Amino acid sequence: MTRGQEIAARVEAFVRERIVPYERDPRSTSHGPSDELVQEMRALARDAGLLTPHILPDGDHLTHRETADVLRASGLSPLGPLAVNVMAPDEGNMYLLGKKASPELKERFLKPLVDGTARSAFFMTEPAGDGPNGGGAGSDPSMMLTTAVRDGNHWVINGRKTFITGADGAKVGIVMAKADEGASMFLVDLPDPAIRIDRVLETIDSSMPGGHSVVTIENLRVPADQMLGNPGDGFKLAQVRLAPARLTHCMRWHGACVRAHEIATDYANRRHAFGKPLVDHEGVGFMLAENLIDLKQSELMIDWCASVLDTGDLGTVESSMAKVAVSEALMRIADRCVQVMGGTGVSGDTIVEQVFREVRAFRIYDGPTEVHKWSLAKKVKRDWKAAQG
């Protein structure tokens, strides 16, 4: 058994035995589990030696391939990644800070995230229509309107952001803004009176604490030594975070769909119709068979992409392929689980309906399927031109 598999086995047992019972806890709301619930679960993980298991005591990370095993195990409950502190956006933010922050910034901003005592938010996406041609950075970050202007030994940031996951209740913020040199990235303490949450959106997903907020940033003053990297490094730094983060989303939601499939399979074997168990009807049995195929293909895609990332390549192309293939496959799995279970599948009696909602949202965040396909199509064209000499 590899190091990753050993940790994953412990995480799986912990999630199934200690965290699954929390799935009916009323402290899980439409805007995500409360911080009280998160800290209660993290205390259990800390006692079990499983808090932030993908980061080693010396600060180094498991390999991406090892992380795949661990995060899939955490995802067996929608609450699992939160409990063991591998949930987005914190997991991606920890990875970025671990790779690119100075020792001083790591101590101040990364340590509380690794310790599980603080949450973070990544401020990049902007509202549509705020600028010309519907501008505001979304899938096209070059349309960023939030500005950063030098003022002595500080930067002054102004702009609006939207769909900012976890901003409500976060203690660490990573803000993307456009300086004269280009997009830049800043670390800030939260809450800050210059960052105002206008509203928390009502969305179909409900797994992330704090929900997704619309935010106004007005004259936020950030000391120059809280810039991550150099002015104009923002897009490059964002790729350091986003390429692995797309994949870790795949890992967590793969675990959730494994669990949904288990629940649907149990239902299909126990529920009878027309004189036999549902599973013996081809229409139902075949859907569960197709689930097995999609789960295995997704697992192989995740592991392949993780291995590419472990070579040291950013793996942007590979992570785009994985994001498309896995998110679409998991959507099919979640949909089949709902269908197999009928009315029960759309009720809150099991987590199947939540997994369906969460995976539907997953097809959009960290780049919608169509944006990744567009990017891959451009690569096809570039490769063709290169082959022509």
UniProtKB/TrEMBL annotation:
Domain of life, per UniProt, equals: Bacteria
Q: Which Pfam families match?
A: Acyl-CoA_dh_1, Acyl-CoA_dh_M
- GO annotation terms (biological process): fatty acid beta-oxidation using acyl-CoA dehydrogenase
Every copy of the Acyl-CoA oxidase/dehydrogenase middle domain together lies at 136-202
Name the Enzyme Commission number(s) assigned to this protein: 1.3.8.3
InterPro entries reported for this sequence: Acyl-CoA_dehydrogenase, Acyl-CoA_Oxase/DH_mid-dom, Acyl-CoA_Oxase/DH_mid-dom_sf, AcylCo_DH-like_C, AcylCo_DH/oxidase_C, AcylCoA_DH/ox_N_sf, AcylCoA_DH/oxidase_NM_dom_sf
Q: Which UniProt keywords apply?
A: FAD, Flavoprotein, Oxidoreductase
Record keyword Metal-binding present: no
| Co-factor(s) | FAD
User: Which intervals hold domain Acyl-CoA dehydrogenase/oxidase C-terminal?
Assistant: 232-379
Alphabetically, the GO molecular function entries are: (R)-benzylsuccinyl-CoA dehydrogenase activity; acyl-CoA dehydrogenase activity; flavin adenine dinucleotide binding
What is the enzyme's main class? Answer: oxidoreductase
Question: Is Oxidoreductase found in the keyword set?
Answer: yes
Residue ranges spanning the membrane: these are none
Q: What are the GO cellular component annotations?
A: cytoplasm
The UniProt entry's sequence similarity note says: Belongs to the acyl-CoA dehydrogenase family.
Which PANTHER family does the record match to this protein? ACYL-COA DEHYDROGENASE FAMILY MEMBER 11, MEDIUM-CHAIN SPECIFIC ACYL-COA DEHYDROGENASE, MITOCHONDRIAL-RELATED
Q: What is this protein called?
A: (R)-benzylsuccinyl-CoA dehydrogenase
Tell me the name of the encoding gene: bbsG_3
